[in-house]
Amino acid sequence: xxxxxxxxxxxxxxxxxxxxxxxxxxxxxxxxxxxxxxxxxxxxxxxxxxxxxxxxxxxxxxxxxxxxxxxxxxxxxxxxxxxxxxxxxxxxxxxxxxxxxxxxxxxxxxxxxxxxxxxxxxxxxxxxxxxxxxxxxxxxxxxxxxxxxxxxxxxxxxxxxxxxxxxxxxxxxxxxxxxxxxxx
Length: 184
Description:
Blueprint: E1 2-6, E2 9-13, H1 20-26, H2 31-40, E3 44-47, E4 56-59, H3 65-77, H4 94-97, H5 119-135, E5 150-154, E6 160-164, H6 167-172
């Protein structure tokens, strides 16, 4: 689903994936159109921004050629709403995106012991931290109350995702009375 504001309100684009057998009953019995229907179910990867050709958007194959073209043109018209690099994420007012810790009384700040990382992971950590520092999202602090280790997780494409181990912080915060449903 994609939502974005326009003059008259908010436009919502939803994707409905049709089951191939349902498509076959709607399409005429011509072999050429049946082949076209099967090909249409594959997703299309499209690079929208000329400066970031490696960052592609997947468009569902159930869209017609005209629908795909219109969606691409709509996305290209609104390129400014996407964050193409970390520096694009700055400038959000603190009132909108400020996070405060809801720590229960009686908990003192916890500093986890530093865990060593493999050399490959250290390179990925330095590269990610450098990107975030240059973008102004992260800054060095000298007197911190809470200190948590990083956990590096390998993505399906072989690159690394940097996560933070908030185990001690989670113990100090109250449980949410509205837990998320199972999201696996």
